[in-house]
């Protein structure tokens, strides 16, 4: 019984309420002190989340949400603006017309041309990185690209384009894409959703003819047969564009930098940056003369009319570069010797044209071939377009000369008629030493030279 009463006494003592508000030292309180019966500590702890902090937090969250919504809205507007801009450029560059042409051609079984997006080409070139640059020119920059299917391509990013060219671009570029010739760089597609359209070509591995003949290793030998073959292949490509393409196509900027070489040194004419369809109206005049100094047809400069004979003149300069291994324009020498064409004309007058040729060519070229090829160059470089040969004629002549260089008729058992076909019409049945009338390009008069 005693033990039970003692336990009850202790229980009463333990359950006796303590007013902790009266004992602040023993029961410190940081908030509003409220005594709660039956509890040891009824003091509410200090409220760390004050009203001011609540207001600041609320305002901060509101501002953040507002900024986030504005930013999201801005991104949405920018995206819509970018889409509208791309669509505007696409339509402006004739994308709708091009799509219609592609559909009609694909239904006829002639496809292979692709309209690329800007994003695809950026990805292919690592955002047009500097280490992807293959070359720079008057019309733009060419980049090496790798498409998603691992196809290696050359992407030309042009600098500018005339308004008239922009209107005609889609139609002309599709016609160019239909050219299928082993000596013409294949146009694979284009990108129209940029201000100036980009062109996508097949990649040709060995660089340009310019770098091949004027590169760092000038001591490297280039056989005369290789030079003659490259010239013949280039002429054949231009002849195809002039005569076999429908409609005929004029290149407009023929030069060694626009002739590429593959791994077998096969020539491929490239860069149709200045090219255009042959005008049906002969009176059509260019508002802007395009081309490269040293290769430009003087008649084109005077009349502003680009013709197939303008390409012939430029090709004549290329042929001269191949034979001499000298640049079309050489600014390090005296002023009168800066033009390769001018130097050749003066050398022809003085009968010293052989000295202008590269030592390798002089060593390998036969005398009869020298006579023929010098005459061909002179005709190509004539001031009058009417006196120049067609590219088809030049290609055939070069191919005959190449065959003759390899198998001279003087050492063959062919009959006279077969031998004569290797010579030009005006030289048949003539002695090997002969005289020819050639137009003086500087004085516009006729003079004679002996070979």
Architecture blueprint of SSEs:
Blueprint: H1 2-15, H2 51-92, H3 95-107, E1 114-115, H4 118-124, E2 133-136, E3 140-146, E4 152-158, H5 163-177, E5 187-191, E6 198-202, H6 209-214, H7 224-244, E7 249-250, E8 259-261, E9 267-269, E10 276-277, H8 298-303, H9 308-324, H10 340-349, H11 353-356, H12 359-364, H13 367-380, H14 391-406, H15 416-420, E11 435-439, E12 446-450
Parallel strand pairs: 1-5
Antiparallel strand pairs: 2-3, 3-4, 4-6, 5-6, 7-10, 8-9, 11-12
Membrane topology: Single-pass type I membrane protein
Transmembrane segments: 55-77
Pfam families: PK_Tyr_Ser-Thr (PF07714)
Q: What can you tell me about this protein's structure?
A:
By secondary structure, the chain is an alpha+beta fold. It folds into 2 domains: 87-203, 2-Layer Sandwich (Phosphorylase Kinase, domain 1); 207-450, Transferase(Phosphotransferase), domain 1 (Orthogonal Bundle), CATH 1.10.510.10. It contains 15 helices and 12 strands. The strands form 4 sheets. It has a 6-stranded mixed beta sheet, with helices on both faces. Strands 7-10 form a two-stranded antiparallel ribbon. Strands 8-9 form a two-stranded antiparallel ribbon. Strand 8 (259-261) and strand 9 (267-269) form a beta hairpin. Helix 7 (224-244) packs antiparallel against helix 9 (308-324), helix 9 runs antiparallel to helix 13 and helix 13 (367-380) runs antiparallel to helix 14. The protein is elongated and about 135 Å long. The protein starts with a helix and ends with a strand. Mean pLDDT is 77; it is low at 9-13, 410-419 and 424-451. ATP binds at residue 157.
């Amino acid at each position: 019984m005693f033990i039970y009463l003692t336990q009850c006494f202790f229980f009463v003592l333990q359950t006796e309420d303590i007013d902790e508000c009266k004992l602040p030292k023993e029961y410190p309180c940081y908030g509003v002190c409220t005594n709660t019966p039956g509890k040891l500590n009824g003091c509410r702890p200090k409220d760390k989340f004050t009203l001011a902090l609540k207001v600041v937090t609320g305002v901060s969250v509101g501002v953040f949400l507002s900024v986030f919504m504005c930013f999201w809205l801005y991104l949405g507007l920018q995206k819509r603006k970018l889409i509208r801009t791309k669509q505007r450029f696409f339509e402006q560059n004739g994308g709708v017309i091009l799509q219609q042409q592609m559909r009609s051609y694909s239904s006829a079984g002639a496809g292979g041309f692709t309209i690329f997006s800007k994003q695809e080409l950026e990805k292919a070139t690592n955002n047009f990185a500097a280490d992807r640059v293959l070359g720079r020119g008057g019309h733009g920059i060419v980049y090496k690209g790798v498409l998603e299917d691992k196809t290696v391509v050359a992407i030309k990013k042009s600098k500018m384009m005339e308004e008239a060219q922009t209107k005609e671009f889609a139609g002309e570029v599709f016609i160019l894409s239909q050219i299928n010739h082993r000596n013409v760089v294949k146009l694979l597609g284009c990108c129209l959703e940029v201000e100036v359209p980009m062109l996508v070509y097949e990649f040709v591995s060995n660089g340009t003819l310019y770098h091949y003949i004027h590169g760092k290793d000038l001591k490297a030998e280039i056989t005369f047969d290789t030079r003659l073959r490259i010239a013949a292949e280039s002429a054949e490509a231009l002849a195809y564009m002039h005569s076999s393409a429908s409609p005929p196509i004029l290149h407009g900027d023929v030069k060694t930098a626009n002739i590429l070489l593959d791994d077998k040194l096969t020539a491929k004419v490239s860069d149709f940056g200045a090219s255009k369809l042959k005008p049906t109206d002969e009176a059509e005049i260019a508002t802007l003369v395009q081309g490269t100094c040293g290769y430009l047809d003087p008649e084109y400069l005077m009349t502003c009319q680009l013709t197939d004979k303008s390409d012939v003149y430029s090709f004549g300069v290329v042929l001269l570069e191949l034979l001499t291994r000298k640049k079309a324009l050489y600014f390090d020498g005296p002023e009168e010797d800066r033009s390769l064409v001018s130097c050749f004309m003066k050398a022809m007058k003085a009968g010293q044209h052989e000295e202008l040729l590269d030592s390798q060519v002089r060593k390998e070229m036969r005398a009869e071939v020298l006579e023929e090829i010098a005459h061909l160059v002179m005709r190509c470089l004539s001031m009058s377009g009417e006196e120049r040969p067609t590219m088809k004629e030049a290609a055939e002549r070069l191919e005959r000369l190449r065959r003759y260089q390899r198998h001279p008729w003087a050492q063959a058992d062919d009959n006279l008629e077969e031998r004569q076909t290797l010579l030009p019409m005006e030289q048949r049945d003539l002695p090997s030493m002969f005289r020819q009338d050639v137009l003086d390009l500087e004085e516009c008069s006729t003079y004679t030279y002996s070979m």
